[in-house]
Amino acid sequence: MKVFLLLFGLLVLGSGEGAAQSRYFTRTGHIWIFSETPIENIEAHNKAVSSFISFDTGEMVFSVPMKSFEFRKSLMQEHFNENYVESDKFPKGSFKGNIVNIQSVDFKKDGVYPVKVSGTLTIHGVSRPVTADGTLDVKGNRIGAKSTFTITPQEYNIEIPLLVRAHVAKIIQINVDLQYDPFIAKQ
C-alpha cells in the first residue's frame, strides 16, 4: 500500500509542462460490484474512486475507499464493511498497473479504442495480479475508460460466513466507468 501511495503521489505531484496534457485524473470515478445467485442479486456502487493515468507511459493507478460502496440494503452494506472486507482495517482498495497497448490509442482522434490493462489489484490487504480488457473513449479533451472483470472473494482472503454463503456469488463482477479530465499541476 505504501508503494501505491508513493507512486500515486509522485504521479499527481510530478511537474513538467510538457507532460501535463498527457496526464488525466478523476476523483469521481464509478466502480460497482455485482453478485448474482438464484437467491438474490447484490449490487453496490462507489462513486468516490480516484484514478490517475499517464498516456505517455500507460501508467494507471486507482484508490477505492471501501466504505463508499453503497448497497440497496443497509444491512448488506454493514456486513460488507464489518465482516467481509473489514473496511476499518483495510480502508482502501487499490490498483497499480499499465495499459499494455497504450500505443494503439490515438489521443488526437475521437473514437473508442480497445485496451488491455495489467497490474496489481489490492483488496482486503491482499495483492494479486490482474489483467482485464477495456476501452478508452477519446472525446476531445475528455477520456472515458470502461472495463469489466471478475474476482473471487477467496482470492483476497474474504471469508463469507456459511449462513449467507448461498446469497453471495462465488465470482464477483467488477465494473469500471471513469471520466478523466486533464491534470494540470498547480504552480
From TrEMBL:
Keyword ATP-binding: no
Stated name of the protein: Lipid/polyisoprenoid-binding YceI-like domain-containing protein
InterPro entries attached to this UniProt entry: Lipid/polyisoprenoid-bd_YceI, TTHA0802/YceI-like_sf
Domain named Lipid/polyisoprenoid-binding YceI-like: residues: 23-181
Disulfide bond keyword on record: no
Record Pfam families: YceI
Record's keyword terms, sorted: Signal
